[in-house]
Sequence to fold (379 residues):
Amino acid sequence: MKKVLFVDRDGVIIQEPPEDFQVDSLEKLAFVPGVIRNLRRIAETTDYEWVMVTNQDGLGTASFPEETFWPPHNKMLQTLEGEGIRFSQVFIDRTFAHENAPTRKPGTAMLTQYLDGTYDLAGSLVIGDRLSDMKLARNLGAKGILLGRSADLQDAAFEDEGLGETILLKAKSWEEIGDFVLSRNHARKASIYRKTRETEIRIELDIDGTGKTQNQTGVGFFDHMLDQLGKHSRIDLQVEAKGDLWIDAHHTIEDVGIALGEAFGKALADKRGMERYGCFDLVMDDALARVAIDFSGRPWLVWSGEIAREMVGDMPVEMVFHFFKSFCDAARCNLNIAITGDNAHHMIEAVFKGVARAIRNAVRRIPGENDLPSTKGLL
Fold:
């Protein structure tokens, strides 16, 4: 089903004059910074149907004559169309707020054609600068993106209005909106299932997550390290592994590394618009981990440092190196790790946290960019 991008006009596409809130001359027409470039990014890379919905108080009355409204409005549309941004519909409510007309946002009476079940409203977005726009999103069964000053309101204000589940993003700029919509449309997620005679592994990965983890491998300390990897990279990570632990933990940890690398390779796809490189120095008490990563398309691991103990909890220390080697081979990335310290637990945890923060830097999307981070043309 078709998804819709419902976009407010004043304060979102064009600037709203503070003196009278009416764009009633060409001299008053000014676009919100970044809006054209980011609307074009969205138009070029998504398949939303574009709909403009705007309240224009008293349009057609003496307080707001139509002959002053249409020249700047049409000039705005003409400018947007010149950049490939075309609205299939423009809905204008002319009533005043005190009339409480069902056609006025947040009412949906103008939009009944989108309520007949043929549109994916749950996957649709409303972009606006007022709570009335967010209430429109809620009333449509869509999600909202709030731009500008209203975004400064505390979360409690949104909860009081019943909008806590509706608003996906409170943005200060169109760069934030562009990045968010593109990431939502091109989700960097992967599901991996790997089964051998030694292990059975399922992985769910969301590069653009919030750091939620649920990891169960049967190796307690390893689960703890995977939790650190997800939390500090802000990647949602779910690992379920069943392995031949009656032999030892080797096959389980190795195969999780392989499957996790495959998940990263799948989720990052062609790596367009991302930093690619990441590095981080992370200290944990006596331990210092220095980590650099490059999602280069070529596997390589450099490890420097000695961890004195043979086991930490139920995890063999030698498997730390082996896990990251397996990860690099499958993800096809370069990873350089140097570790110093005295406490083995601290050293290993510093490595996992350091790798997480380096990954976080490397996978970050660059605002406004969709280029491949390579002169080769392929990663």
About this structure: DSSP finds nine helices and 16 strands in the chain.
